[in-house]
Amino acid sequence: MPTEHVPDGLPPAQLHTLIAALFSAAGVSAAGAEIVAHALVAADISGKASHGVMLVPMYLARMKAGSVTAADEAQIVHDGKTTMVLDAAHGLGQLSAHQACHLATVRAREYGLAMVTVRNAFHFGEAGYWARRMADAGCVGIAMANTRPLMPAPGGAQRRVGNNPLAIAMPHTDDVPVVLDMAMSASAMGKIRLAERAGKTLPDGWATDAQGAPTRDPATAIAGMLLPAAGPKGFGLAFMVDLLCGGLSDGAVGDQVQPLYGDAATAYGSAQAFLAIDPSHFGLQQPLAQRASDFARAVRESQLAPGVARVFSPGEQSWQFAQDHCEQCPVSADTARQLSALAREAGIDVPAAWRSL
């Protein structure tokens, strides 16, 4: 059956205010709550609800249980000018990612490129959001993270690597961003959880049961394994992202990362990496931002295959979704009910559109 959404959605500013209020009530500073709310709402606006406000109840449950702290900043434990390592000490992932992106872009402007890794990190939401932040600052932005193992090696029947996201964003000169944002599994676990809530079956090739047999049932998939995108290629990329994040931060690798939806009192322990590259240090005759936008436009203007209405450049579909929902952000009724309950518990006003849910 289709996912039930709140009629007409909710204005993004109103949703942002509610999410920020919930985190403020949990002890996060006003500035920190704004950063977290902006990142989560941006995911919903761009059509990536699996990385948006549906995560808030789980985040707050972990804060209540003590596995996530309200700290605003991570500690800098290594500073090699173009290389930095942060220890997030299990603070909210959006806050340590915000800090890491800022440090990476500042150093990239000075030295040409800079990489900041983060250990003992919590879930940071949508990887593309952080890559775009660096691109908006004029740099090529690369963001990645490891997760608890969810995928087997091709032919295996044991979880070995996570669906470790990778995002690359280019500076650009027109409105349409140029962004690759992908997990290494055929689909993100968040999408499978959304399918479970909506009573939907999964497409073929997304997941297996715990013994490695293919499944289309979301609950079985959650208890089983995700399949890598493009088989050994997706697995190999996930393996390398794990080492780039955990290996270069002295953080967790593989099964040292704990389940995100597991024991709320047990720290997640992800590792993350952020790379910023300033094109102005490369002596370019043609600005990279212009070439990126021109190349993306050429993709959009491609000759179409029979029966195809149009093609999209990387990142365009999410951007178009955001243009279409800039006034009303879709939120599932289930998520709205959970957020309303948390708001009432914290003494926060519930949006009028949700009071009858």
What does this structure look like?
- By secondary structure, the chain is α+β, with helices and mostly antiparallel strands.
- The protein contains eleven helices and ten strands.
- The protein has helices spanning 12-25, 30-45, 56-65, 93-111, 127-136, 189-198, 218-223, 232-247, 288-300, 316-324, 333-346; strands spanning 75-79, 83-87, 113-121, 140-145, 166-170, 178-182, 207-208, 214-215, 225-226, 270-277.
- The strands form two sheets. It has a seven-stranded mixed β-sheet with strand order 1-2-3-10-4-5-6. It has a three-stranded antiparallel β-sheet with strand order 8-7-9.
- Helix 1 packs across helix 2, helix 2 (30-45) packs across helix 4 and helix 4 packs parallel to helix 5.
- The protein is globular.
Q: Classify the helix fraction into a percent range.
A: 25-40%
Summed over residues and divided by their number, the pLDDT gives a mean of 95
Number of helices: 11
* Spatial order of the strands forming the largest sheet: 1-2-3-10-4-5-6
For the biggest sheet, the summary is: 7 strands, mixed
Spans with pLDDT under 50 lasting ≥5 residues?
none
**Judging from the principal axes of the Cα atoms, what is the shape?**
globular
End-to-end CA span: 19 Å
Quaternary structure of the protein: single chain
Radius of gyration: 20 Å
Number of strands: 10
What class do helices, strands and sheet pairing give?
Answer: alpha+beta
Run of helices and strands: HHHEEHEHEEEHEEHEHEHHH
Strand content: 5-15%
